[in-house]
Amino acid sequence: MGGDAGIVFVADDLGAWLVGLLADAGRKRLTSVVLGSDQERALRRAATAAVQLTAGELRPEGGGRAEELAMVVDQVFGEPTPTALISGRATLLEELQAGIAAQLAPLDDPSLTGTGKSSADVLGVPATVLVKKLTGHLIREIVVRGARGGPLAPLAAQLNHDVTHLQGQRIENILGRLDNKVQKALARLDSTASVSAAPATPTVGETGQRAGTLTGQQGELAEITHVTAPGAEAEAAPAYARHRRRVQLLSAIGAAIAALAAAAIVVIFYNSHSPSSGRALSTARPGTPISVGSRPDWIVITKNGRTAYVANGADGTVTPINLTTDTPGPPIRVGREPFGIAITPDGKTAYVVNHSDGTVTPINLLTDTPGPPIQVGNQPYRIAITPDGKTAYVTNQADGTVTPVNLTTRTPGTPITVGNAPQAIVITKDGKTAYVANQSTDTITPISLPAGVPGTPIKVAYYPDGITISPDGKMAYTTDNGLESITPINLAARQAGTVIAVNSPIFIAITPDGKTAYIANYAVGTVTPMRLPAGTLGTPIKVGHNPDAIAITPDGRTAYVTNNGDSTVTPISLPARTSN
């Protein structure tokens, strides 16, 4: 399953480093995995696949640039970091993550090259991004390969055990903070100070909200906030009010602890998911692939459903597809590495993000002719347009910013600071809020529009890659490529819910009726349907190599999937009930 077909490469140094790290972890008793020749060969194959996938993802144009990146990444593991720098880790998973971070850290050091630029600057990829990508791909390769049995099965089981352990620690920490807040709240209830003056709401209530994120029990946990709210019993006699509030608070605490106990068994494993209710979602059928440009990375469909536009990352073009006949038209030349497209609400103009040029190219859709590019930030990635068609917002991966673009004058505005390595961006139907997925900080940043003011980041699972909003505007869903999961987010509360395990998710699209989501599974060449709002997964649909993005026609009858590794687009006929 692993590897980019365009990169001929073997990760000898990373493989040898992995063998040494596991041997050292065994001496520290972080693992009981016994290495032999079969295990070492399997580890080297997993390491090679992980480096190839990392290079292929960060250098989708393939060829020499991708191979150069793969070789540099592998070579930094030729001189292992002293174990003292990564010692003190409680689990093998933590040791592996810390070790990769320590090995790749020198790439960000400009003093090592003698040119005033770091190796990461020359490569055009920050070391933090490499750490996230390589770690995610390496763990996934080991665990998915081990899930099938064979020499990596014990190591896969060990990593799964570590995930369970770390999730348990997280729950224990939340319980500890909850206990501390509760003790303070009880002390305030016993004091002679005025109940209305006690700052109870931002203490226990905040902890209850975080617990609710893990368990989905926001209703029960919100009771703590209500009970400790200032002035909730202002009309009652002070002594009776204090007694009643104590009883209510203890009852609410019990509900919170029960909810957290339930969360303790909700553990996300890396191994591939086997849905038990796939039959109800398995009627979608893939059609004949449509050839487009090299490395298609993004796709959008016009409002009338007649044409799709595909951004081809490796050859600097956009391919129009006639959706009546499923035939591609002549490619439209844009900038280097076009990675994102958005179409204005009036359907007259498409705006294409050119990753390597730091620009956005407008295309007149009546004539399919490109206009002068608009300068934005460093390594722009995705773009979204407000419902009124007046402003576009572009994520800039290398800057950690979002650039607003006035579409009337086609001029950029002041960048908005978000998290590290912002990827996808979506805008609510009312145009009041944008949500940005930040890969390196594992967060979603809400931005108030049109003011451009970022809000408190929403913590999601590991390495969010894509984000979409349900048609009713109540929920958002992120693809967490590092943890192989989907995170649902309640947008009214701005709270993440319980994650859903999915194999290698990179993109998610929702049908117009809001009943089904379709998830692109990049590493395994499938699209997984998911029933909403339950989060029930169906049988994966086989498409092409490295499916990367999905667009659904306005009538909900067909999904179109870009296959990054095949340079094709696969149409999928959807069940009739998905039409709106």
Write a brief structural summary.
The chain has 10 helices and 35 strands. By secondary structure, the chain is of the alpha+beta class.
Protein architecture, described:
The protein is α+β, with helices and mostly antiparallel strands and 580 residues long. Helix 6 packs across helix 7 (153-190) and helix 7 (153-190) runs antiparallel to helix 10 (238-263). It starts with 11 loop residues before the first helix and ends in a 7-residue tail after the last strand. Mean pLDDT is 79; it is low at 1-9, 192-237 and 261-280.
Topology summary:
Elements: H1 12-27, H2 37-58, H3 63-75, H4 92-104, H5 119-123, H6 127-147, H7 153-190, H8 201-215, H9 218-227, H10 238-263, E1 285-286, E2 290-291, E3 296-301, E4 307-312, E5 317-322, E6 327-328, E7 332-333, E8 338-343, E9 349-354, E10 359-364, E11 369-370, E12 374-375, E13 380-385, E14 391-396, E15 401-406, E16 411-412, E17 416-417, E18 422-427, E19 433-438, E20 443-448, E21 453-454, E22 458-459, E23 464-469, E24 475-480, E25 485-490, E26 495-496, E27 500-501, E28 505-510, E29 516-521, E30 526-531, E31 536-537, E32 541-542, E33 547-552, E34 558-563, E35 568-573
Antiparallel strand pairs: 1-35, 2-35, 3-4, 4-5, 5-6, 5-7, 8-9, 9-10, 10-11, 10-12, 13-14, 14-15, 15-16, 15-17, 18-19, 19-20, 20-21, 20-22, 23-24, 24-25, 25-26, 25-27, 28-29, 29-30, 30-31, 30-32, 33-34, 34-35
Helix pairs in contact: 1-2, 1-4, 2-3, 2-6, 4-6, 6-7, 7-8, 7-10, 8-9, 8-10, 9-10
